[in-house]
Design brief:
By secondary structure, the protein is of the alpha/beta class. The protein contains 14 helices and ten strands. The protein has a six-stranded mixed beta sheet. Strands 5-4-3-6 form a four-stranded parallel beta sheet, sandwiched between helices.
Length: 327
């Protein structure tokens, strides 16, 4: 059995011998070769498949640290604002820790698959009549009163945990890739990868970030964040790595989403394909080594399939009819 993330990297994370380990078996996610994308882009492409985490997204890496530290520091509850993945992760890890979780959701802006996870884990879900930014401001104010631990990525423990993905990539490849592509919503994951490569003493790969051109209304709900709270760290990572952030229309994000599923068999939520969409717009140098971070499982947003894929075709239980319908 793979040790918990906090146990594997205990000497490199902000935990001590008395820190309770709140874990669901996060981390150690696959680095999957992508042969068809490699051929298409003229580079060696791998997919860091973060949908394999316990609640189906990269958020679990940071949540194990944030909730473990909240428990250690005596928090009575946790709170977050979320467009979905944070809510699912916070609810699950709070339940594991025996803590109540309060989740503030921008009304009507969260995919149902993520709400189902948070509801099943017993979190208190509140629909905020406003944007994500307004929900986050309210969560921060509540946490400042000392009654709840904030577990959004503004909590530094979150980024400490999320940086472990950079360590795993460097360990598996024997060093950093030349290019790292990932979605850009709030910017916390970009900041975490930059922190991870720096703390490992590695050179930064060139960051290629895919953001939604319509940040407030994109179909890619997990990056539907109008004001990235980690914008300064992202700008530093881009400047230090010679990287680029690309604003993408929804049709390009969805095209990359289909490509991942139909050419590489990786079913992710639409926002998770934004890094690939940015790579397709800004191809890597020929022969370079590229890691594309795929941040969340497709079951997070099953409605995307209803919007974009063909429905089942009715057919009689007859081999000839089936053969005709399948052709």
């Amino acid at each position: 059995m793979t040790p918990a993330l906090l146990e594997r990297y205990r000497d490199r994370l902000p935990v001590g011998p008395d820190t309770p380990v709140v874990s669901l078996g996060e981390g150690g996610t696959p680095l999957v070769p992508a042969p068809r994308l490699s051929e298409r882009l003229g580079a060696s492409v791998w997919l860091k498949w973060e949908g394999a985490n316990p609640t189906g997204s990269f958020k679990d890496r940071g949540m194990t640290v944030a909730v473990s530290k909240a428990l250690e520091e005596g928090a009575g509850a946790v709170v977050c604002a979320s467009t979905g993945n944070t809510s699912a992760s916070a609810a699950a890890y709070a339940a594991r820790a025996g803590l109540p979780a309060v989740v503030l959701l921008p009304a009507g802006a969260v995919a149902l698959g993520k709400l189902a996870q948070a509801r099943a884990a017993g979190a208190r879900l509140l629909d905020v009549r406003g944007s994500f930014d307004e929900a986050l401001a309210a969560a921060r104010e509540l946490a400042a009163r000392g009654t709840h631990a904030l577990v959004n990525s503004l909590n530094p423990y979150r980024l400490e945990g999320q940086q472990t993905a950079a360590w795993e990539i460097a360990e598996e490849l024997g060093g950093p890739p030349d290019v790292l592509a990932l979605p850009y919503g709030g910017g916390g994951n970009t900041a975490a990868y930059a922190l991870g490569f720096r703390e490992a003493g590695e050179a930064l790969p060139r960051f290629v970030l895919g953001a939604a051109a319509d940040r407030a209304g994109t179909v890619a709900s997990a990056i539907r964040i109008a004001t990235p709270v980690h914008a300064e760290e992202v700008e530093r990572a881009l400047a230090d790595s010679g990287g680029v952030a690309i604003d993408l229309p929804d049709d390009e994000i969805l095209a990359a989403w289909r490509l991942l599923a139909r050419e590489e068999g990786v079913f992710c939520e639409p926002s998770s394909a934004a890094g690939l969409a940015a790579l397709l717009r800004e191809p890597p140098p020929a022969g370079s080594r590229v890691v594309c971070v795929v941040t969340g499982h497709g079951l997070k947003d099953p409605d995307a399939v209803d919007r974009d894929a063909e429905p089942p075709v009715p057919v009689d239980p007859d081999p000839d009819a089936i053969a005709a319908a399948a052709s």
